[in-house]
Amino acid sequence: MADRDPEIILENAVPVNAPEDQASAFKPAKATGRWRRAALMGIVPLLAIGGGLTYWYTLQGKVSTDNAYVQQDKVSVSAEVGGKIVTVAVREGQLVKAGDVLFVVDQEPYTIQVAQADAAIASAQANATALANSSALSGADIGAASEDIGFAQANYDRQRALWQRGFTTKADFEAAQHQVSQAREELRLAQAKQNEARAKLATGSQVPGVLPAVAAAQAQRRAAELNLKRTVVRAPLAGRISQADRLQIGQEIITGLPVVTIVASAQSYVEANFKETDLADMMPGQPATIALDAYPGVKLKGHVASIGAGTGSEFSVLPAQNATGNWVKVTQRVPVRIAIDERSPRQLLAGLSSHITVYTDGNQH
Hints:
Layout: H1 20-24, H2 27-59, E1 62-78, E2 83-88, E3 95-96, E4 101-105, H3 108-132, H4 135-138, H5 140-165, H6 170-200, H7 212-229, E5 232-234, E6 239-242, E7 252-253, E8 258-275, E9 287-292, E10 299-307, E11 333-340, E12 353-359
Antiparallel strand pairs: 1-8, 1-12, 2-4, 2-7, 3-6, 4-5, 6-8, 8-11, 9-10, 9-12, 10-11
């Protein structure tokens, strides 16, 4: 190519027929190139070593992990009474305060239960009034039985006198004797009925001053009122509504079955799973930095709130069984709770991935 295109000039090229002094002019250029290569070969390893030492130094006094996720307390709300939903007061994603109405269950059956309890109270009170005014409690039966005893005794005494003088028959004498015994038994029966009536009107130490039948009816009414009150389901805490797809008018509610979830978004924290080898210098109270994958550039300050009582595998549904011949040691992860110390400029969502750095020397670098 060079002999075809006379315009191409090769740098540092020495003509074939050049004199000796002209060729020697190119030797310093070759020596300079060798020195550059030697310098580069010496500087590059030094820079690599220096960078490694600097990186190692920056890692001292802190541990980090990207196996961390934002957590928020969640409460599953269910109805304490069964029935159909007649009113829905919230929607998916809505913010609610503690005590806000979520939904209402059909109240008609429980209103009827309250009315039945009122009727039971009235019946118990009427029975108590009737018992208090009964002849058994008033003593009228006892008085009548006492008079019968007196009359039978007088008749018996006459028959006995006549029997002794032979002016009466044995049958009349025995009949008079039987009347006395019968009258005495009627007196004992009247006295027993009076004691029974008094016992029915007695009050116990558990509900002093209130008849047991009336107290039972009143308790039944309180239970009915409580069930009626529970038809209105309210938020137990402030947060954001989630999983509200079952909140439909006409939906049949089963007692104890969760139908909606409230996420306490104002109480966010991070659960970071650190390697067990990172826990040597970690303790509660140490400062931490929280970086969120969803919001690049957002960094929050926090601190170590607590260190888990066991590794993640210990609390799994099926813990690992290491008593086998093919056991392989695996570095375990320990959950560490990181409290967030400042308000986030962006909304925190449960389950967001994050990167946690804990400064074990107590100073944020």
